[in-house]
C-alpha cells in the first residue's frame, strides 16, 4: 500500500469514528505521536554489541500500548491500516553499521532531496554522509506492483530465486561530472567502486563509495563534490538519475606511527591510522619472505580490535601489489563506539576444507563462519590519542 494513501485512509477513518475515542486517549495519542516524531528508533542490535536507548524503548513501548488501545476502540478497518504503517526511523539508524548510526545520532546526515520516477516507480535519495573516507547514502523505492527486493534476488513462494521488477541491475557514478576511471587517471587497480547492500526493508538500499587515495596512485576525494548516480532497474528501460551532494562533515584524527611486526615469513607495517565518528581507516604494507607461498596473499586478512577485544567490523579493503612479494592495503573498518586507548591489528590466513589445498572451499566453524589461522606474532598494538 502507498504510504500517502494509507495516511489518507487513517485520517478519514479517524474522522468518521472520532466520537468513539475518549478525550484522554486522544490527548495521549497526540503526545505519543509527537514524541515519536522527534526521536530515532533503537538501532538493530548486533550479536556482539547490545545498545539500549531508554527513551526510544519507552516511546516504542508506548506506541505498542497505544496500538492495542486503538484496536479496541477503532473499528477493524482502521486497526488493520495501523498495522501497515511503516516502522518509524531512518534507513541509516536501522542499518547494522555503527558508523551510520553515529551519523544519525550526531546530526551529521544530509537530505539530498533527489528523486526520479519512471513507469510508476520512484527512487529517492533519503540520507547521505561523508567523512572523507567513505560517502554513504540511502535510497528508497516506492511504487505499485513490486514483488521483489530493491537489491539482489528474491526467494519466491515456490522457494525459487527470481529478480523482481524494479530490482537494481547496475549502477554508475560520476564525481563532479567525471567518471571513476577518469578520476583515477586510468589506474584501474585503484578505481573506487560503488557498492550497495539491502536496508532493513526490502525496498531500501545503502550505497557507499570508498576513497582509495591511501594507495598513493590516485587523488583523494574532494572535501565537497556532487555525485551523480545512474541506476538501472530490472524491467524498466529508462535509467534513474540521482544527485547526491557530498560535503565532509568530520574533523578526522590522523596518526602516522610507522610501526612494524615480523613473524612466520611475513612483515607487517602500519603506515597510517585515521579515524572519525564514521570510520577507522588503516594503511598497511605487507611483505612476504622469499621462501613464502605467493598464493597465501589471496587468503591473508587482518582483524582490528580494541583493548577489550571488540572486533571492528570490516567495511572495505583494497590491495595494491607494490612488488611480487609486497602489497599495500587500504583497510576501512567501522569506528570504535567508545574511544579506546589502544587498537590491535592481527594478521591471519583463512583455512581450507582440504588442509593440503591452497584453493577451494574455506573451512567453517559451527556458525558457518570461515576459520581463521592467526599468524603468531604478526600483530601491532598502536596507542590511540
TrEMBL record:
The record's InterPro entries line, in alphabetical order, gives: DUF4179, DUF5643
Source organism, top-level taxon: Bacteria
Keywords per UniProt: Membrane, Transmembrane, Transmembrane helix
Q: Any idea what this protein is called?
A: DUF4179 domain-containing protein
DUF4179 domain span: 48-140
Q: Does the keyword Transcription regulation apply?
A: no
Q: Which organism is it from?
A: Paenibacillus odorifer
- Per the UniProt record, which residue ranges are transmembrane? 56-74
Q: Which residues does the UniProt record annotate as the domain DUF5643?
A: 254-359
Record's Pfam families?
Answer: DUF4179, DUF5643
